[in-house]
Design brief:
Elements (H helix, E strand, L loop, with lengths): L22 H14 L13 E5 L2 E4 L4 E4 L12 H11 L11 H11 L8 E5 L2 H16 L3 E5 L8 H4 L15 E4 L10 H18 L4 E6 L16 H10 L3 E5 L24 E4 L10 E5 L1 H10 L10 H16 L2 H20 L5 E7 L2 E6 L8 H13 L2 E2 L1 E3 L5 E4 L7 H17 L1
Parallel strand pairs: 3-13, 5-6, 5-7, 7-8, 8-9
Antiparallel strand pairs: 1-2, 2-3, 4-10, 9-10, 11-12, 12-15, 14-15
Helix pairs in contact: 2-9, 3-9, 4-8, 6-7, 10-12
């Protein structure tokens, strides 16, 4: 039986043998371990020292260039000049908390909320996606009087104590707590229907929560199911799950940290592909293109009910510098046509990967939407091939491409470049992957 993989172990450097490293690199790693201790996480079998980045590329201390398809934090491109200028200008002018009137914060809130469907008209800003999901959970508990949550088996929603409880992919050994139920990632059942199968699994989990006396507060999903291995299709399959959630008296929390801000190429929000409106939407990493900011958008009555019992305040959430960064990101997405680019380049990229699959039996399913694609590696018997994925990840790194893994077994390449990614970048990736597969 294939072992499941904890999220931080998917591509983690293990500091067990640095004898083959240069003395300088070995010393750097030792210093890092001495200061950060057990919490230190580095990528790849041989860690990289990064010194600068631009667009879709990063550069190490030797000047070597790497194509970054690893992370969506720099959503509109590393060190985008418009975002950098907005941040620099605002931090040189004023940066305080939100208990004063400040025009940049108020203007940004109106700008962001204009991108949401009408029922979602209140914004609370935080600093991280973890804080956003923690707050969303508390709002759901206050609204429903229940404390149970349903997530997918390899979900990741953050790292506060409350949010780690609904992030099974973060747990090394202990099971999820009693107020959490996990269900399989979206997949077609015997009848071939993804929506029916996912909703049936959800209903069973809700029934179990009710029998236990916990009850359902919310279903929370990332609408592209990134940590589960990227499951985007068919568009609309989440509708039945949202209906089942509401029928049970629960709320639907749309975690847009990964699929949001144009990533899927089908609009600004991943949930829009499914024709649904969440009760609560959470945002994070891409919101400020690297500046730490996040947020929660919900209906006024839900936020008011929470605030009646909790005096919530976030010192740095919603500071003017964050607002400047966020506003610049929204402007860049629109001005540079990045949603259209995600759709068009993503479709081109996915088609090229499908063509590559025809010549490689070790490539399994290819899934995704826009510039978020998952590529499975499988054994001859069709099972997950985690060692193959690990080999490819490190071989691509040696060839100048940064990439990570996802999925319950860590056998899925998680392909997630900045939204400025071009067809030329896609060509480089596919040609390099073809070369890596031919050699290994």
């Amino acid at each position: 039986m294939t072992a499941t993989k904890q999220i931080l172990a998917l591509n983690r450097f293990e500091a067990t043998d640095t004898a083959h490293f240069s003395p300088e690199l070995a010393a750097r790693i030792a210093r890092r371990q001495a200061t950060f201790g057990a919490s230190s996480v580095l990528f790849y079998r041989e860690p990289i020292e990064m010194v600068r980045a631009k667009g879709a590329y990063m550069y190490d201390a030797t000047g070597r260039r790497y194509l970054d398809v690893y992370n969506n934090v720099p959503s509109v491109g590393h060190c985008h000049p418009a975002v950098a200028e907005a941040v620099a200008r605002q931090i040189a002018t004023l940066n305080i908390h939100t208990r004063y009137l400040t025009r940049p914060v108020e203007a940004y809130a109106e700008q962001l909320l204009s991108k949401f469907p009408a029922p979602l008209t209140n914004l609370t800003m935080t600093c991280t996606g973890s804080e956003s999901n923690d707050l969303a959970m508390r709002i759901a508990e206050a609204a429903t009087g229940k404390t149970g949550f349903v997530v997918t088996r390899a979900a990741y929603h953050g790292n506060t104590q409350h949010v780690t409880a609904i992030s099974p992919s973060s747990m090394k050994s202990k099971p999820v707590p009693a107020f959490v139920r996990t269900i399989a990632a979206p997949a077609a059942g015997p009848d071939g229907d993804v929506a029916t199968t996912f909703a049936a699994n959800l209903k069973a989990a809700i029934d179990d929560l009710e029998r236990s006396g916990v009850g359902l507060a919310a279903l929370i999903v990332d609408s592209i199911f990134s940590s589960d291995g990227i499951y985007a299709d068919p568009p609309g399959f989440l509708q039945a799950a949202v209906e089942a959630t509401h029928a049970a008296g629960g709320l639907f929390i749309g975690d847009e940290v990964q699929p949001g801000f144009g990533r899927t190429g089908g609009g600004l929000w991943g949930f829009a592909r499914h024709g649904i409106v969440p009760d609560i939407v959470t945002m994070g990493k891409p919101m400020g293109n690297g500046f730490p900011m996040a947020g929660v958008v919900t209906r006024p009555e839900l936020l008011a009910q929470f605030c009646e019992e909790t005096g919530y305040f976030n010192t740095f959430g919603g500071n003017p510098v964050a607002a400047a960064a966020g506003s610049a990101v929204l402007d860049v997405i629109e001005r540079e046509g990045l949603i259209d680019n995600a759709r068009d380049v993503g479709a081109y990229f996915k088609a090229m990967l499908q063509a590559l699959k025809a010549d490689h039996a070790d490539i399994g399913d290819i899934r995704g939407a826009g510039l978020f694609i998952g590529l499975d590696f499988v054994t001859a018997a069709g099972g997950p091939d985690t060692p193959r994925a690990s080999f490819v990840i490190n071989a691509l790194k040696e060839a100048g491409i940064l990439i990570g893994a996802a999925g319950l077994y860590g056998n899925t390449l998680k392909i997630r470049p900045p939204l400025c990614f071009s067809r030329a970048d896609a060509d480089f990736f596919v040609d390099t992957l073809k070369s890596v597969l031919a050699k290994g």
